[in-house]
């Protein structure tokens, strides 16, 4: 079943067209990766889906409903949650307070307890460090906190913007393992990454974004084996 669909979506910054009429969909249960170089439009696409930016034309549908004009906070209530690029945690708040910010909109106390349980079982480190200030944690831990906070609203689709950015290699593997686990627990994942190797290896389907347009699509495996993708994005000829 199609969960999220973008149809001919264009996004402008003033007169600059950053996204050129892109169309793609994400099925329930999938991991879909968007890969592309710096400035290709990955973050713009994510922010348009979460409602922080609005398309100048085209439409976005979620679970059969047109959400093109819906405000960002309402999209969270409908099940779209984003862990932003650069993490965006609250450095002066504790781990627990940061997670609590993500419970916004959860209707029941039981739902909140369930969300905490899920996040602490995925990230035992956060459980151990509940009282620590977010800003004093390592890069990898802050990334875990950002993903954990996004999961607190029990989203149907989790939007992850460059979760591996700036992480040491051992953390990168760990973060991708956790993303796979989150997906196996039933959450649909849309992932934006410059680390194309991991993003394609983990994805059911993927798209390559170049200067605001989708130039290639296929299964993660197909794109990993595609010579043009290899040359441009995987660092091998
Ligand atoms: P990165 O990996 O650097 O985040 P990206 O693929 O996410 O790159 P975007 O940040 O979406 O790319 O940027 C897409 C295009 O839009 C770029 O040409 C960028 O310069 C431009 N752009 C992004 N933000 C703004 C802004 N606030 N005002 C004007 N142009 C912008």
N-to-C SSE string, H for helix and E for strand = EEEHEEHEHHHHEHEHEEHH
Strand arrangement in the largest pleated sheet: 6-7-8-3-9-10
C-alpha termini separation: 37 Å
Which structural class best describes the helix and strand composition? alpha/beta
State which percent range the strand residues make up. Answer: 25-35%
Overall average residue pLDDT:
92
Radius of gyration: 17 Å
Give a quick account of the main beta sheet: strands, pairing sense, barrel closure: 6 strands, mixed
Bound chemical compounds: adenosine-5'-triphosphate
Shape: globular
Question: How many β-strand stretches?
Answer: 10
- Counting DSSP H or I runs of 4 or more residues, the number of helices is 10
Indicate the low-confidence ranges by residue numbers.
none
Helix content: 25-40%
In short:
This protein has 237 residues and is of the alpha/beta class.
Structure characterization notes:
This protein is of the alpha/beta class and 237 residues long. It contains ten helices and ten strands. The strands form two sheets. It has a six-stranded mixed beta sheet with strand order 6-7-8-3-9-10, with helices on both faces. A four-stranded antiparallel beta sheet has the order 2-1-4-5, with helices on one face. Helix 3 (95-101) runs parallel beside helix 6 (139-151). The longest helix is centred in the last third of the chain and has 16 residues, at 169-184. The chain starts with a strand and ends with a helix. Adenosine-5'-triphosphate binds at residues 13, 16, 18, 36, 38-44, 85, 194.
């Amino acid at each position: 079943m199609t969960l999220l669909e973008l149809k001919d979506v264009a996004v402008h910054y003033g007169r600059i067209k950053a996204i050129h009429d892109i169309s793609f969909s994400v099925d329930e249960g999938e991991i879909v990766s968007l890969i592309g170089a710096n400035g290709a439009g990955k973050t713009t696409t994510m922010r348009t889906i979460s409602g922080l930016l609005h398309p100048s034309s085209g439409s976005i549908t979620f679970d059969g409903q047109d959400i093109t004009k819906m405000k960002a906070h309402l999209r969270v209530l409908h099940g779209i949650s984003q862990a932003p690029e650069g993490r965006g945690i609250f450095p002066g708040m504790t781990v627990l307070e940061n997670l609590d910010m993500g419970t916004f909109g959860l209707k029941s106390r039981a739902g909140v307890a369930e969300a905490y349980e899920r996040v602490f079982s995925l990230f035992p480190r956060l459980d151990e460090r509940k009282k620590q200030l977010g800003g004093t944690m390592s890069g990898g831990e802050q990334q875990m906190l950002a993903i954990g906070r996004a999961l607190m609203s029990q989203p149907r689709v989790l939007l992850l913007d460059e979760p591996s950015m700036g992480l040491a290699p051992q953390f990168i593997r760990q973060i991708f393992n956790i993303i796979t686990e989150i997906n196996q627990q039933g959450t649909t994942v849309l992932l934006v990454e410059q680390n194309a190797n991991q993003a394609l290896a983990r994805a059911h389907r993927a798209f390559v974004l170049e200067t605001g347009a989708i130039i290639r699509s296929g299964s993660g495996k197909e794109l990993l084996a595609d010579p043009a993708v290899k040359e441009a994005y995987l660092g091998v000829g």
